[in-house]
Amino acid sequence: MSSYSLILLSGGIGKRMQLNIPKQFLLLAGKPIFIHVLEKIDLIDEIKEIIIPCPSEFISKTQEIINDYGFSTPISCIEGGSSRQESVYKGLLEAAFEHVIIHEAVRPFASKDEFKQLIQEDSENAIFGLDIPFTVLEGRAFVEKNLERDRLVNVQLPHKFQRKKLLYAHECAREDKLEFTEDASLFFHYFKSDITILKGSEVNIKITKPIDRKIAEAIYKESILMED
Q1: Which domains does the chain have, with CATH numbers?
Q2: Can you give the pTM of this predicted structure?
């Protein structure tokens, strides 16, 4: 089985959450959100290192919180970029292994089994995704185009890629001055190669707005009840 570097994106500064602290520091069931993520990752033998790109002013705080929990997987906090894309690029430059997993610090409900499923997937490039249950149109002030809902995918993380190929795609995007919202679209833009879509989970939400915190608490309580 291959060994993996995991890049855990922690670039949020709490703007959409209307806070003056990064949203990954917010508490969920008494723990910072990103600690819930690390606790699952730390149990996966194939993940040999964790790289956390984050704002420079929060590097020491992030490391301090991590140290309180005594994880066994080596974790390094690095200065992130001015965009999500640049933060991934910086993480790829630091990664020691030829396979990488990209995840976000504010997606605490991606399960250990989902990480294992991603690793065990035969395809070297794979993502999680969900069908879109509502109508999506293209346009700004006016409707410009109908989109076929059954051909659209709600992209979730984690993702996995071959590190060298993803790094090359990032370097091309930098040269072309193109910005992408996540790495599957960036990778596909330059390689047009197969990226396997695995069935995602409705609970694998990204916590970015105040309403997401309430939803996350409800999901967490429901998961505890199911375990009981």
Answers
A1: 4-227 (3.90.550.10)
A2: 0.93
